[in-house]
Structures are given as structure tokens and as C-alpha cells.
Design goal:
mainly alpha, 59% helix, 3 domains, 28 helices
């Protein structure tokens, strides 16, 4: 039948597909080449050492050092008497030198790490100096006819080596006489690569060399600096100008000449690195945060309405011409400016300008003296104005430029930046001044815009510190203390007290949500409110106007007890009937049943 025929056809197709699979067989395993777990302790130690070096940073230097010594089987106690595997030490120190050469940005970090290792065991120092000497000797024996790409990589390594060796000298791993010898070997007047290495090394060690005893007056260094000044075309050490004659060595190229000029400028400026050179150094996370906070604060201080861009038709020249034309027109002296056009057109269609007649232009003087000098010249001691009718208008007084304060949402972002900078720098006066620039409070608490900006500042600061440490909370309270009281010659506070209840609404509403990620948020907010109650006159009645979510699901009675506990820790602060009444209104039925005496429950600190 037809169905039987279809079924047979299907079985034949399956069988044909299976025959293809019959030809496949499992892969043959080559046991000689397959990966096998090795029990070589030396290889395993090198692998772990590479992992630690990749994680090395300024913040974990000591911790990585302990782990590094553990890999090598060395304990901090009794290291001088302990025996070490010299081959393993050689291998791991080679890794450090190689990484310093390839990662010049972290040369100081690797040098600091190496100096710590050198203090642990003399084998580390001996191996480190031997490896550094070997790599330095390769610079002297550099080969020519090297491919361009390979030459670029070699040059990069040499620059990294110079920075690494210089930092070792600064960490007292290498002695000063050895460093002088290195500088002399690099100062080859006809070799650009060695001169560049000389400049890089001198940039790193020059400050210490100049201040180290017996080095500044070293005869060899004096000759080196004299030749450096000569090659850079600058004044010599004794202040004499270099002549254009052939006296003294010349730089092999302009690039080296300018490089040596930069080196001389750096020395004459007391070896103070430029901002670009500082940016090229590795930094800790705290330094990065501080720089970011300072940049944000600087940007905030430059805030305000952006400057209008000047179009092509609104250039300074056109604006100046418009002002001139307006002044002539308003004073009725258009006839004093004769037209300069009206000539015939040339073959290109341009109109020829006719020169003005001699004496047709004169300077127009206003009949109203605008300065004390002009009034004195007119007579009367500058007190009287010229008599007689005039059709000229007196000059208008310049209109005051209205300062536009930021919107509340922008105030929140700027307040966070101000606090982050303050947590790093600790400049309270600068933080208070920045807050004053945001709020603009002059004593008028009825100004809704001022109160809203102040509330935004309070809200942003409180929400920020709730997720930080207690030290940041105390720092925030210190800033707010100075903002809520007159400072110096100022007769009013920087923030109106009316902004506090409004600024606390968001922190109270989201307190329990914040506590999920920051369990101490409730404690911190209680400290903040208690401090403002004790020192800024914040009313406890603010909790009756708190958000509904806080009063229904935020366990308000427990939180208010926590606030009053912090509040009574201040001198002269006790629980009043008003406090008891507010807490009673916010307690649930179950809480009222369990605690009939609310005052006793609040005073119980167990």
C-alpha cells in the first residue's frame, strides 16, 4: 500500500544516514602531547608569581609582598638565616625587571616592591642588581640594522629600564656612585638613543643627585652638565651665553636638543615635575578620587548659564561696529560720519571705496562728563553739569547681571561633588562657601526657591552618607553645622532651618530600602536628626508630616526611639512631653499594648 511504501522509504533514508556515521570513530589520544598536570613546584611558583605581579598596586603592596614570600617559601621571621632557592629567586626577579621595562608607567611601583624584597633577604638584592646590570649593558652593546618595529620595542624597554633603575636609586637600592657611572656611560654625544636614556634617567634621579652630599660638586657631573648646556644651546653653568662658534659639543638632532632643554628647565625649576609628567605616573585609588572630586568642584564653581556662542555674523568686529553706529545715531551726529562708498565698480563687481576728505572725521565728545577727571576739566570741581539745552541722552548705567542659581536637581548633584571633595580634602570653609553659592540664602526664609534649593542640598547629603562610614557622617554633620549657623562676618546662616524637614522627607521614606544594602543607615540618620534637633533647633514635630510610607511601613516608633536615644546624649537634652506625644501618635496598636508607659519605654536603653 501507499502507507507501507512511504514507511519503507523513510527507513531506507535513515539507514543511509546511519551508514555515514558508521565510518566515524573516536579520536585517538596522543598521550605524549596531551596536556598533563605537572608537579613541578618551580613552574607552579612562577605561575603564581606572575599572577601576583599582575595584581600588584599601591594599595595592596604589603599584602602582595607577604604572598610573594609565601610562594618562595620564605617567612618574615628569620629571613636572613633562611635558605632560598636561588634559581627560583632569579626567575621571579627576572619577571619583575621585565615587567618594569615593558610597563614604564608602573616602574616606581615595581621598584618599591623590589626594594622591599631587597630588605627581606640579601639574595634578592644581589639578583636584582645583577639583572639590572645585565640589561643596562645591552644598551651599550646595541646593534644597528634592527627592523623598525623591533627597534621601537627595544627603545621602549630601555626607557622603562631607566625609570626602574632611577627609582631603585631613590629607594636606596643602588648607590650614588653607581648612578653617576651609569649617567656617564649614557652621555654619548653622538648617540641619540643613549642621550634620550640619559635624559630620562636624569629626570628621575636628578633631584636626589643634586641634594646628595659629595655629588653636586663631583668633577664628572660638572663636566656632564656643562656639555648638556652646550648641546642644548643654553647658558653655561657659570651664566655665560653660548656663542655661535664651534666651541662645545652640539646635539645630534633638534629632538635631542629640545629634550635636553626640557631637562635643564626641570633642573632650574627645582626638579618640579609638570602636570603632564605627574599624570604619567601610577596613582592610588584615593589620589584618583581626590583629583576627580577637585575637577568636579572646579567645574561646579565655573557653573552657571553657558556662554552664548558667537556666530559668524556676530563677531566682535561687527558688534563693535553696531555699537559705534548706535552711538552716532542716538546722538544725532550721523552727518559726522560721511559715507565711504559711492564710487564706481571695477570689472570684478567690487565697489571702490572713496577716501574721506581731510577733516571730515572728528572725535565726538559727550556733553556729559562721565568721570571725575572730565568733570574737573570742565570746572566746578566735578559737581556741576554743563548748562544749556542738549538733545543728547546721558549714558546709561550698566545693568546688574542677575546670577542664576541652579535648579534643585542640579543642586543635588553638585552637593554630592562638594561632599566627596570635602571627604578627601577636609577644607570646611571651602565646602561651606560652595554650599552658599548653591543656595543663595540671604535671611529671607519666605523665599520658596531658596528653601527648595536648601532642601535639595540636605537631601542629597543625607542620602549620600547613609551608605558610607560613620566618619563621613560626622564630616557631613560638621559641614552642616557650619552651614546652619552664621560664620565670621556673615549675619545669616548659609542654609535656612526651614529646609531641614523638607530635605528629610526622601531619606525617611526610603530609609528601610536603604537599610537592605546599608544596615547602619537607620543609625546614621538618627544621629543626623538628633544633632540637628540639639544644635539647629529642628522640631520633633517633623515626623507627623513624614511620608505616609514611613509612618505605615517604616517602623516609625522604633526609629524615633533611636533618634531620642542619640538626642539625650547631648548635654542638657532630655525627653519632653512633646516627644512622648509624637511617638504615641506614630505607634501601632500592638506597640501601645506592649508599652503602656511610652516615656519609660523611650528612656529604657536596654
Amino acid at each position: 500500500t501507499t502507507s507501507h511504501w512511504k514507511e519503507q522509504k523513510r527507513e531506507n533514508a535513515i539507514e543511509a544516514d546511519m551508514k555515514v556515521l558508521w565510518d566515524y570513530k573516536p579520536l585517538e589520544i596522543n598521550h605524549e602531547k596531551r596536556w598533563k598536570k605537572t608537579d613541578d613546584k618551580e613552574t607552579e611558583a612562577q605561575r603564581r608569581a606572575v599572577g601576583l605581579l599582575n595584581k600588584l598596586s599601591w594599595t595592596n603592596l604589603d599584602r602582595m609582598l607577604a604572598s610573594f614570600l609565601e610562594i618562595l617559601g620564605i617567612t618574615p621571621a628569620g629571613t636572613e638565616a633562611a635558605s632560598v632557592d636561588k634559581q627560583l629567586v632569579h626567575d621571579v626577579m627576572s619577571m619583575i625587571v621585565d615587567k618594569a621595562m615593558n610597563e614604564a608607567h608602573f616602574a616606581e611601583l615595581y621598584a618599591k616592591f623590589s626594594s622591599k624584597l631587597a630588605k627581606v633577604h640579601k639574595t634578592f638584592k644581589k639578583t636584582l642588581l645583577s639583572l639590572s646590570q645585565t640589561q643596562f649593558d645591552k644598551i651599550e652593546a646595541n646593534e644597528d640594522n634592527v627592523p623598525e618595529e623591533e627597534a621601537r620595542l627595544i627603545k621602549k624597554k630601555y626607557i622603562g629600564l631607566m625609570q626602574f633603575i632611577g627609582q631603585l636609586y631613590k629607594f636606596d637600592v643602588i648607590k650614588g656612585n653607581i648612578m653617576i657611572s651609569c649617567l656617564e656611560k649614557l652621555f654619548v654625544k653622538a648617540d641619540e638613543e643613549k642621550l634620550e636614556c640619559f635624559a630620562k634617567l636624569m629626570t628621575t634621579v636628578g633631584d636626589k643627585l643634586d641634594h646628595e652630599e659629595g655629588v653636586e660638586d663631583h668633577d664628572h657631573m660638572v663636566h656632564v652638565w656643562q656639555d648638556t648646556y652646550s648641546m642644548a644651546g643654553r647658558k653655561s653653568l657659570n651664566g655665560e651665553e653660548k656663542s655661535d662658534s664651534n666651541e662645545g659639543p652640539k646635539a645630534p638632532s633638534n629632538r635631542i636638543k629640545f629634550l635636553l632643554q626640557d631637562l635643564i628647565d626641570l633642573r632650574e625649576c627645582g626638579w618640579q615635575l609638570s602636570q603632564r609628567q605627574k599624570d604619567e605616573q601610577a596613582k592610588t585609588i584615593e589620589q584618583i578620587h581626590k583629583e576627580v572630586a577637585m575637577e568636579e568642584a572646579a567645574a561646579n564653581r565655573r557653573g552657571g548659564p553657558p556662554k552664548a556662542k558667537m556666530t559668524r555674523s556676530q563677531s566682535a568686529g561687527n558688534n563693535m561696529n553696531n555699537q559705534r553706529q548706535g552711538s552716532f545715531s542716538s546722538s544725532g551726529t550721523d552727518s559726522l560720519m560721511p559715507p565711504l562708498t559711492g564710487g564706481s565698480k571695477d570689472t570684478d563687481g567690487f565697489e571702490q571705496v572713496r577716501a574721506p576728505k581731510k577733516g571730515s572725521l572728528r572725535r565726538v565728545q559727550s556733553d556729559v562728563a562721565t568721570t571725575s577727571l572730565q568733570r574737573a576739566m570742565q570746572g566746578g570741581g566735578g559737581k556741576s553739569l554743563p548748562k544749556g539745552p542738549t538733545n543728547k541722552l546721558p549714558p546709561k548705567a550698566p545693568s546688574a547681571i542677575a546670577f542664576e542659581f541652579p535648579e534643585p536637581e542640579e543642586c543635588k548633584q553638585k552637593m554630592k561633588s562638594i561632599l566627596k571633595e570635602y571627604f578627601v580634602g577636609g577644607d570646611t570653609a571651602d565646602a561651606v562657601l560652595s554650599v552658599d553659592e548653591l543656595v543663595g540664602y540671604t535671611g529671607d526664609a519666605q523665599d520658596d526657591a531658596v528653601v527648595k534649593r536648601g532642601a535639595a542640598v540636605v537631601e542629597a547629603g543625607a542620602l549620600l552618607v547613609l551608605e558610607l562610614k560613620e566618619s563621613e557622617v560626622k564630616a557631613y554633620l560638621n559641614v552642616m553645622k557650619n552651614c546652619l549657623a552664621p560664620q565670621g562676618t556673615r549675619t545669616t546662616a548659609v542654609l535656612p532651618v526651614e529646609s531641614l524637614p523638607l530635605g528629610l522627607r526622601e531619606p525617611l521614606e526610603f530609609l528601610r530600602d536603604v537599610e537592605i544594602d546599608a544596615p547602619l543607615a537607620g543609625k546614621f540618620l538618627a544621629q543626623i536628626i538628633a544633632d540637628w534637633m540639639a544644635n539647629a533647633g529642628l522640631s520633633f514635630l517633623l515626623f507627623l508630616q513624614a511620608p505616609d510610607y514611613f509612618k505605615s511601613d517604616g517602623r516609625p516608633a522604633d526609629f524615633l526611639k533611636q533618634v531620642l536615644t542619640c538626642y539625650t546624649e547631648n548635654d542638657g537634652c532630655t525627653i519632653t512631653d512633646e516627644h512622648v506625644d509624637v511617638v504615641s501618635k506614630l505607634m501601632t496598636k500592638e506597640e501601645r499594648t506592649e508599652n503602656n508607659d511610652v516615656r519609660k519605654w523611650l528612656e529604657d536603653k536596654s
